[in-house]
Amino acid sequence: MFWSFICLTENGGFRAKMYDITQHPFFKRGIAVLVLAQSVLLSVKWDVKGDVTFPLATMSVVFTFIFVLEVTMKLIAMSPAGYWQSRRNRYDLLVTSLGVIWIVLHFFLTG
């Protein structure tokens, strides 16, 4: 499947394909749903000894990695200079970076 994706992008260019994907309404809606789901996770009280803490933390990590993938795809699609022009993209980059820092602090320094 990956090879067919590469073959499809040779004519249109990899950057153009990334741009088409990141600008597609389904992609944007999917990311918006994940942002809402991540926000719901913030509203849940996390008890260190609770049974649901580990699954909630795992879901948060998965969402953060998807957001890292989104940022990477947009950086490829728009180039770093083009990506940086949008305030929304800068905010997304900041929040995603803070999420990665949280992952490092939560999982690697506490365990």
TrEMBL record:
Q: Where in the cell is it found?
A: Membrane
Show the GO MF annotations.
monoatomic cation channel activity
What keyword terms does UniProt attach to this protein? Membrane, Transmembrane, Transmembrane helix
Query: What sections of the protein cross the membrane?
Result: 26-46, 52-71, 91-109
Q: Say if the entry is tagged with keyword Flavoprotein.
A: no
Where is this chain primarily localised? membrane
Coiled-coil annotated residue ranges, if any: none
One biological process term in Gene Ontology: positive regulation of synaptic transmission, GABAergic
Query: Gene3D superfamilies recorded for this chain?
Result: Voltage-gated potassium channels. Chain C
Q: Listed GO cellular component terms?
A: plasma membrane
Specify the Ion transport domain's residue ranges: 24-105
Topology relative to the lipid bilayer, per the entry, is: Multi-pass membrane protein
What's the protein called, per UniProt? Ion transport domain-containing protein
Originating species: Eleginops maclovinus (Patagonian blennie)
- Upper taxonomic classification of the species? Eukaryota, Metazoa, Chordata, Craniata, Vertebrata
